[in-house]
Amino acid sequence: MLEVKDVHAGYGNLKILRGINMNVPTGGIVTLLGGNGTGKSTLLKAISGLIPLMQGDVFFNGVNISNMKPHQRMRLGLVQVTQAKEAYPAMTVEENLVLGAYTRRDREGTKADLEKVYEFFPVLRERRKQLSGTLSGGEVQMLVIGRGLMAAPKMLMLDEPSAALAPKVVLEIFANINRIAKSGVTILVVEQNVRMALILAQYGYIIRDGVIMMQGEADNLISDPAVKDSFLGGSVADTSKALRN
Length: 245
Fold this sequence. Notes:
With 245 residues, the chain is of the alpha/beta class. It has helices at residues 40-48, 70-76, 93-99, 107-120, 122-126, 137-149, 167-182, 194-200, 218-223, 225-231, 237-244; strands spanning 2-11, 14-24, 29-33, 53-60, 63-64, 78-81, 155-159, 186-191, 203-208, 211-217.
């Protein structure tokens, strides 16, 4: 579905990404992992068109989108949920969600997708008339993911969905991401929480200093001694069971 070929990108004259190659097949979940400042969010911005490419190409469903505007990419079904968790505090939960469908003209489809969002995140249904500025951090994360779903994505890119959330809330968020993937939405999730992301995903890429340093099946990465030494510790069994239910 998504193919990134020899992508170089950055900010002004500062190059962050140095020859990134990555594939995200249709269906399931792929994760991009790494610490702060490694280029994860920069890569998402390059894919979604928020920053220009210095070199290379991005293809989505066989179409070269390298020179498309962000809204054009979104209309093709490539939707990003940023790390900022930006909800409009003076608008209700439902108003925020409906705003995610602003490029759509299919009213019945929009109503059906709103109902799906409420099925994924029942707390949003309970809070639908509540101002989003009164929500907890975890509820805001659910809201921005739900708003992304209202754009009818073929592929949803999530930037650090676990950031600044309590462990119990993180588990709930990741379980819902798994449910969304099972509904047919392809997901690329960018994370620092390596353990949770590898349990959730089928395939993973690890980025460092703007270069993909390792990639492979998630089950292989999570058992790789180099990954364990650098990123992991302890048992993953209980978390895995909770996420995959």
